[in-house]
Design goal:
Blueprint lengths: L17 E3 L3 E3 L26 H8 L3 H11 L17 H7 L2 H4 L22 H4 L6 H9 L3 H15 L7 H6 L3 H7 L6 H15 L3 H9 L2 H8 L5 H15 L3 H9 L3 H6 L11 H14 L9 H14 L5 H14 L4 H8 L4 H8 L4 H14 L4 H9 L6 H5 L4 H14 L4 H9 L3 H10 L2 H17 L2 H9 L3 H6 L6 H20 L3 H10 L2 H7 L6 H15 L11 E2 L4 E2 L13
């Protein structure tokens, strides 16, 4: 349907917009004209992006980026997007936020300490047994297979030392040697606690490896044996069992559920059933907390709801502890539990822990702030009522510092959280306004890193979608238009589509208060019209159609509706503007 050339009017009464290439509208104008005459409503039809993106995808485009953008738009919780899916889920954001998960919170850990305390061997590393560190795998096999308990202990300790090497521990060699069944059998030797501990340590480090290596430990029958050791009268042995179960559960949802199925939760929680958690050794408490967090981790499927309800009271208690590592792992656990459906979020919220989570959100410790922000962000993807609990707990007062944080990831997650709050009710949007957060979002649009800018774009678009006229006017007066339009040059088509949706929403508000022309002038003066026109050559079908529709509806000059008829010459038009145009456009 592409047409070349340009329609040029013969007089003031025949103003047609230019048409060129792939349905591209261009305003007829005098070259270098400072302003263009705007005629509102020159063409009928609604804005492209006001139509359900879901329907448009199925009818008009199979573009992968566009589909992703539409999917994300539809998954916001606010009305007017997709009534069948009332909350926004993490899609690509989830991948971005989690791809450094081993830096945020370790899935598995290897015990490489050589100190005789805090989850290390109770055996003193004296001269008589130092020689065991130099045993080969073959020698270890012979020692473990002997009938001499002392030799079995030395061989197991030698294996543990090999597996505790900082670099390239010979895990596969130990597995191929068939040592795992022997080590698992040693876990049951209550008559010799040192060999229980050494074998538990060795198996812990094997389970800290790849999924295949963890599978070897599980297939060897280690899970029930470790659960039995949780009740050991020797603290260092029960702690090593905690550590091993944490590594197994951290491998993924299948082994996590297997650990739960074998009955690990109750004996784990009993380890913390003391009047004062501070009476427990810090390393011991940290290990138990970390293992509990791994039992909350992973999706597809999520942990059984019964297990979550069993663990949550202890997490609430841990959330009030003063140890930073305990707090961090507890917040990670809560972030996993809230990363799900509304009913799963409700299970967490109804415990009453949100105020304490918000308190931790305001701490200066990044390892605590990061998971607490993740958990708060997850909660506000839920219902409006769940979001309101976060707001009522004072969370918004923390966001000025989060939205201006020196760490880009904190800014990004804070903006993502705001995007789900602005997807809520109008009174919730007003709370965002009242806490002075709009300028911070605009600041991110102006100079944030691109990932943060994308989240701020969603926050603004959701705001324009559900906000009142007054709220949208305030947004424009705060200076959102120019930085929003500047991002139209982004290469990410889905972000461009979301921006065009925001601009469309602002125009709809302007129409209701008869300020469309001021908005058009504002957009033109900051170079936005040129950017919108340029999008008509965009490779993405939805982008070029959306930009063309904006131009056609608000910036074409096909008909005149008032007495301000442009003066014309044979070559161009000069558009007359009635009255003085203010430098700053306020609705």
């Amino acid at each position: 349907m592409a047409r070349t050339g340009q329609w040029q009017g013969e007089g003031a009464g025949n103003l047609n917009p230019a048409w060129s290439g792939r349905g591209q509208w261009r305003c007829a104008r005098r070259l270098g004209a400072a302003r263009r005459r705007v005629v509102r409503g020159a063409h009928g039809g609604g804005l492209f992006l006001s139509v359900s993106l879901k329907n448009l995808i199925s009818k008009m485009s199979t573009n992968e980026n566009a589909n992703t953008a539409a999917a994300r738009l539809n998954r916001f919780k606010n009305k007017g997007k997709d009534t069948t899916e009332m909350r926004r889920r993490r899609i690509e954001v989830n991948v971005e936020l989690r791809k450094a998960k081993k830096d945020d919170q370790m899935l598995k850990r290897r015990n490489v300490s050589t100190l005789p305390d805090d989850a290390t061997s109770p055996l003193q590393e004296n001269r008589s047994n130092q020689v065991s560190a130099h045993w080969s795998v073959e020698e270890i096999v012979r020692g473990v297979s002997s009938n001499n308990m002392e030799l079995q202990l030395q061989a197991t300790q030698a294996a543990r030392k090999l597996l505790s090497r900082e670099k390239q521990p010979p895990i596969d060699n130990i597995i191929r040697a068939g040592l795992i069944p022997k080590f698992v059998s040693f876990l049951g030797r209550a008559d010799c606690s040192p060999i229980q501990f050494e074998s538990a340590w060795a198996l812990t480090n094997i389970a800290s490896g790849t999924s295949e290596q963890t599978k070897a430990v599980v297939d060897g029958g280690a899970i029930p044996a470790f659960i039995s050791l949780l009740a050991s009268p020797h603290t260092h042995i029960s702690e090593q069992a905690v550590w091993a179960l944490g590594n197994i559960a951290g491998d993924g949802s299948a082994y996590r559920d297997l650990v739960i199925k074998f009955g690990a939760i109750e004996p784990l929680l009993s380890l913390l059933a003391v009047p004062d958690l501070s009476s427990l050794a810090s390393g011991y408490l940290r290990n138990v907390t970390w293992t509990l967090s791994n039992l909350c981790r992973n999706k597809n499927p999520a942990p059984p709801i019964e297990a979550i309800e069993q663990i949550l009271p202890t997490l609430v208690r841990l959330l009030h502890h003063d140890d930073h590592e305990v707090l961090a792992d507890t917040c990670w656990a809560l972030s996993y539990l809230t990363d799900g459906s509304n009913d799963r979020i409700e299970v967490v919220v109804k415990t009453g822990l949100v105020p304490q989570l918000v308190k931790l959100l305001g701490c200066s410790e990044l390892p605590i702030m990061t998971p607490s922000l993740r958990a708060i962000g997850n909660i506000v993807t839920g219902t409006d009522e769940q979001t309101q609990i976060v707001i009522d707990s004072g969370a918004l007062s923390v966001f000025p510092s989060l939205l201006s944080h020196h760490k880009n990831n904190i800014q990004k997650e804070a903006a993502w959280t705001m995007s789900n709050i602005t997807a809520g009710r109008q009174d919730q949007i007003q709370r965002v306004v009242d806490h002075g957060l709009v300028p911070y979002l605009i600041g991110i649009l102006r100079k944030g890193d691109f990932k943060s800018q994308k989240e701020a774009v969603w926050a603004v678009t959701n705001y324009t979608s559900g906000g009142t006229i007054d709220q949208i006017v305030y947004l424009v007066q705060a200076g959102v238009v120019e930085p929003l339009l500047n991002l139209l040059s982004a290469k990410d088509s889905k972000t461009v589509l979301v921006i065009l949706d925001a601009i469309s929403n602002i125009f709809l508000a302007a129409e209701k208060i008869n300020e469309t022309e001021k908005l058009c002038l504002m957009i033109e003066e900051c170079g936005g019209l040129d950017k919108i026109e340029a999008l008509q050559s965009h490779e993405n079908e939805q982008v070029y159609k959306a930009s063309s529709t904006l131009i056609e509806k608000y910036f074409s000059a096909e008909e005149e509706e008032d007495q301000n008829v442009p003066e014309s010459t044979a070559a161009s038009y000069t558009f007359q503007i009635q009255g003085n145009t203010p430098d700053t456009f306020n609705f």
